[in-house]
Amino acid sequence: MRVEFSLQIYSVTMARHIIILVAVFWFATAEASHCSINGLPLVRNISELPQENYGRSGLSHTTIAGSVLHGMKEIEVWLQTFAPGFRTPIHRHSCEEIFIVLKGQGTLYLTPSSHSKYPGNPQEFHIFPNSTFHIPVNDVHQVWNTGEQEDLQVLDVISRPPVKVFMYDDWSMPHTAAKLKFPYYWDEECYQTTSRKDEL
């Protein structure tokens, strides 16, 4: 009787362990497939790609082709939509960036990189549908949807992915005090610290 009771407890315990292992395996597989870098399909429908705001109300971000998500090595392409009044942080990064405005209007604030200790007063540039602008390496900038009614939607291309962003509290903050955000919000979940070898 005692052996039979012990076997029942053992069986229940084993069943629980198996269920836990299956659940862990299932979650790990689901996570791995989300963060897979097996490349990109040749043709995709952008409207079917996932969009996230990453805890930033007013932002909708889609990584169309990315370093961390898709294994891209030289460039990364994002589709971003800013609600009226939304703005990016004041920031810089050690990569080139090109924007193409698909819809809406806004303002680009930009201070060319210089040898000063802080960004200083930015230049203002009006951006509008079918306009494009280029952000040179390490130029401090901010994009702002200054419209009151319409979303600002941009296609954004960066070099040297994944992006390392230095953020500023304001335009007078010293460069040495800028806060590094790496991996950036949309790369956090899938970024692996293992070194990547260049295949060239």
From TrEMBL:
GO terms for cellular component: endoplasmic reticulum lumen. Gene3D superfamilies: Jelly Rolls. InterPro entries: Auxin-bd, RmlC-like_jellyroll, RmlC_Cupin_sf. Zn(2+) binds at H91, H93, E97, H141. One of its GO terms (molecular function) is metal ion binding. Disulfide bonds join C35-C190. Glycans are attached at N130. Pfam families: Auxin_BP. It comes from the Eukaryota. Its main location: endoplasmic reticulum. SUPFAM superfamilies: RmlC-like cupins. The keyword Signal applies. GO terms for biological process: auxin-activated signaling pathway; cytokinesis by cell plate formation; positive regulation of cell division; positive regulation of cell size; positive regulation of DNA endoreduplication; unidimensional cell growth. Keywords: Auxin signaling pathway, Disulfide bond, Endoplasmic reticulum, Glycoprotein, Metal-binding, Receptor, Signal, Zinc. It is found in: Endoplasmic reticulum lumen. This is probably a receptor for the plant hormone auxin. This is Auxin-binding protein T92.
